Amino acid sequence: MEIFRVLVINPGSTSTKIAVYDNEKSIFLKNIKHPAHELEPFKTIADQYEFRKEVILNELINADIDIERIDGVMARGGLVKPISSGVYEVNEALKRDLRIGILGQHASNLGGLIADDIAKSLPHARAFIADPVVVDELEEVARITGCPSMPRRSIFHALNQKAVGRLFARTRGFVYEELNLIVAHMGGGVSIGAHRQGKVIDVNNAIDGYGPFSPERAGTLPSGALVDACFSGKYTYDEMKKIVTGNGGLVAHLGTNQAYEVEKRVKAGDEHAKLILSAMCYQIAKTIGGCAAVLKGKVNGIILTGGIAHDNFVINYIKEMVDFIAPVAVYPGEDEMTALMQNGLMVLRNQVECKVYA
Ligand SMILES: Nc1ncnc2c1ncn2[C@@H]1O[C@H](COP(=O)(O)OP(=O)(O)O)[C@@H](O)[C@H]1O
Ligand SMILES: CCCC(=O)OP(=O)(O)O
């Protein structure tokens, strides 16, 4: 059997994850955490490009991985134009939109760019992204806000939400497309999606829109206060953007983007840390309740996933508020690396056609 070597790169807001597979066999996996102070010197996401690329290449060198053998570089894709779920080969149009950050700035914008750069330096590698954060399956009614020029947008952890949705269904003898699920991904950002028979018909905008606050995002804010702050003369445009994305949420309240650090403080008896972490959980649970209404109460399961799903305080808090809706399943971490590898192998084996980003 032909062996395909796939490099998977996943730049998240608080981490860079790297994996190498020979066919389905994992030969290397590393999660490099980036505490807030390490990323603070970079003014923009684009400024992190060299840093993140170096991190990836150094890890591969240190692990003695023969990168010349790589056939495909799979990346978690970023804030390009809204597109359907699937695998896209990195092309010039995609790179241009990733560079601009046409729908905003997020570490995953670097994924396709770094993948392309690495693939081009190798003898026969191709670069792809799959299920980027802009996968858009929203129902029309879910797009409308009270201000026609500011519609709601689908920006979420599409790759992992769909991967764990499929895993949940498979392990229970169903297919994902038969079930109604609510998936809460809790990472540097938090997204909560209403999955109706394989389509995410409603979800919060996890980057700079609305929804629960998260380790580094402010989430929904009182709009009057937000307008006042913008015009107060105290902040530049970039500073306001950073308040909403990057320096919001746990970073703003507690000075760290690491939920495990907050959990340690809570265990040590820090009442303020407990109140803030509780507020984040409370907002997540309320949003899950909203998704139950979207699905008209017909919910087969609630899935809690992402790095913070390792945190027992968080899980217990949310479970207590929502387990009256449907059974709660917990998938700590994410299945993004496996999902990217599987998508890459399907294309390299010509089992699916990759889509063209135009
Ligand atoms: N074992 C753990 N216990 C509690 N929180 C954790 C644990 N592992 C990771 N986290 C938290 O999960 C968050 C990162 O989640 P992750 O899904 O890796 O996000 P991202 O992809 O945005 O970097 C961080 O706040 C981190 O502190
Ligand atoms: C839009 C979802 C992307 C996101 O928030 O990812 P991180 O949790 O990795 O920042």
Automatic annotation (TrEMBL):
GO BP term (any one): acetate metabolic process
Pfam families noted in UniProt: Acetate_kinase
NADP as a keyword? no
Primary location group: cytoplasm
The keyword Metal-binding is assigned to this record: no
Q: Which Enzyme Commission numbers does its entry carry?
A: 2.7.2.7
Q: Which InterPro entries match?
A: Aliphatic_acid_kin_short-chain, Aliphatic_acid_kinase_CS, ATPase_NBD, Butyrate_kin
The molecule here is called Probable butyrate kinase
Q: Which organism is it from?
A: Saccharicrinis carchari
Starting at the broadest rank, the lineage of the source organism is: Bacteria, Pseudomonadati, Bacteroidota, Bacteroidia, Marinilabiliales
